[in-house]
Design goal:
The protein is of the alpha/beta class and about 375 residues long. It has helices at about 1-25, 30-35, 35-60, 80-90, 105-115, 130-140, 165-195, 215-235, 255-270, 275-300, 305-315, 330-340, 345-355, 365-370; strands at about 70-75, 95-100, 120, 145-150, 200, 240-245, 320-325. Bound molecules: NADP nicotinamide-adenine-dinucleotide phosphate (NAP). NADP nicotinamide-adenine-dinucleotide phosphate binds near residues 74 and 154. It comes from Caerostris darwini.
Length: about 375
């Protein structure tokens, strides 16, 4: 494995050296010397990204045989989990698709549309007992397969801006999105140690970039990212690889306009009179419109890039530690630029975005301005 990495690095280096030579040959001397330092850095960065991608694609693209490999996915009844379960089944994995309710329409759909290899089981990631039962069920039903990976997909989105989010919203988000994943990992660790398998944690755009408005959700996803980075170090000694998947905006129940409005209305009901007065009813209406517009305008219904990234994290012999599932290259570029800004600049960028979106200001802030 180390040999392959060295080979990939060496090919990468040769590509860069060659490209720079070609550039220097064709570009007018004056131009090269004028832009010497900045030009060098930019050209190197762009070429490095391209060549590393190419060398990795050809040299580190080896995949494991899914034939006798079992994978557990949580939250498979709907959305991304449902799509990924079907995708992994179609690739030949033995999928244990866990749902909170094993008789929900989503669970029935999985039984009907997937191969006989796929098993549906009940698992509520908030319950120690349920997770324990699921781990026992999987262990007893491997049927000669090796348990290879856990995909912690189950997730919830509650709360909004800090004033509209209760402590319960923060606790619930942590309980499902972070502690749920930890419960599942701990229960399946004995099996993963045997196979030297994989842990895949569903993070989010909101776990890698400072995304405003969704406080409890983003907090839990930053925690998932941090936990995963730590876990990768801990589990290295067992040969277990850990990866996070950070999807951008994809159309599922979680990101639908209806669900966003429901979350905000629910949060508003819980806030006390003083906070209501601070914001005012007009704010609420504008806020709801902006949030659902912001969510739906950039989201895509094509979930295949997430499924491919999850499959890469599970099936590649040399997987990445993190994947950013995206269908929207300009958005991806802007976000990566944004994350490199200092906080003060990020705040200015968000102000500009709010302005373009027509995000209202709280009533009290407006009064103080006037
Ligand atoms: N959609 C996006 O744009 C996006 C972007 C970034 C990250 N993500 C992440 O991707 C994952 C899936 O999101 P999604 O968009 O597919 O959301 P979704 O459509 O709302 O589906 C969420 C899934 O999680 C399950 N779940 C919720 N609480 C659970 C619990 N206590 N135990 C077990 N399962 C539970 C739900 O089961 P029930 O059907 O029983 O409720 C459902 O199957 C989440 O972790 C989310 O944070 C999504």
């Amino acid at each position: 494995m180390i040999g392959k990495y060295i080979l990939a690095g060496f090919t990468h280096f040769l590509f860069i050296a060659l490209c720079l030579k070609i550039l220097a040959f064709f570009s007018p001397f004056v131009l090269i010397s004028y832009y010497y330092f900045l030009g060098n850095v930019l050209v190197c960065a762009v070429i490095a990204k391209l060549t590393f991608g190419v060398s990795k694609h050809y040299l580190l693209s080896e995949r494991i045989n899914p034939e006798n490999k079992a994978v557990l996915i949580t939250g498979a009844a709907r959305g991304i989990g449902n799509f990924v379960a079907k995708h992994l089944d179609s690739k030949g994995f033995h999928v244990f698709a866990s749902c909170r309710d094993a008789h929900s329409p989503g669970a029935d759909d999985l039984r009907k549309s997937c191969s006989k290899r796929l098993r549906v089981l009940e698992l509520d990631v908030r319950s120690d007992e349920s997770v324990k039962r699921a781990a026992e069920y999987v262990r007893d039903n491997l049927g000669g397969c090796e348990f290879w990976a856990v995909v912690n997909n189950a997730g919830i989105h509650q709360g909004a801006i800090i004033d509209l989010s209760s402590i319960e919203d923060f606790k619930d988000s942590m309980d499902v999105n972070l502690f749920g994943a930890i419960r599942v990992i701990k229960a399946f660790l004995p099996l993963l140690k045997q196979s030297r398998g994989r842990v895949v944690n569903m993070s989010s755009l909101g776990g890698r970039f400072p995304v405003p408005v969704c406080g409890p959700y983003a907090t839990s996803k930053w925690a998932v990212e941090g936990f995963s980075k730590y876990l990768a170090l801990d589990l290295d000694v067992w040969g277990i690889r850990v990866a996070t998947i950070a999807p951008e905006m994809f159309q599922t129940d979680m990101t639908s306009g209806e669900s966003i409005l429901g979350v905000i209305e629910q949060s508003w009901k819980g806030v006390d009179e003083e906070v209501r007065k601070d914001y005012g009813d007009e704010f609420l209406q504008g806020f709801k419109t902006c949030c659902s517009k912001a969510m739906t305008s950039v989201s895509t219904p094509r979930l295949d890039s997430i499924a491919e990234d999850v499959e890469s994290a599970i099936a590649l012999v040399h997987p990445d530690a993190g994947y950013q599932s995206s269908r929207n290259s300009p958005l991806k570029f802007l976000l990566n630029l944004f994350v490199a800004y200092p906080t003060k600049l990020q705040i200015i960028a968000v102000r500009a975005y709010y302005f373009l979106l027509g995000m209202p200001k709280p009533q009290r802030v407006l009064k103080e301005i006037n």
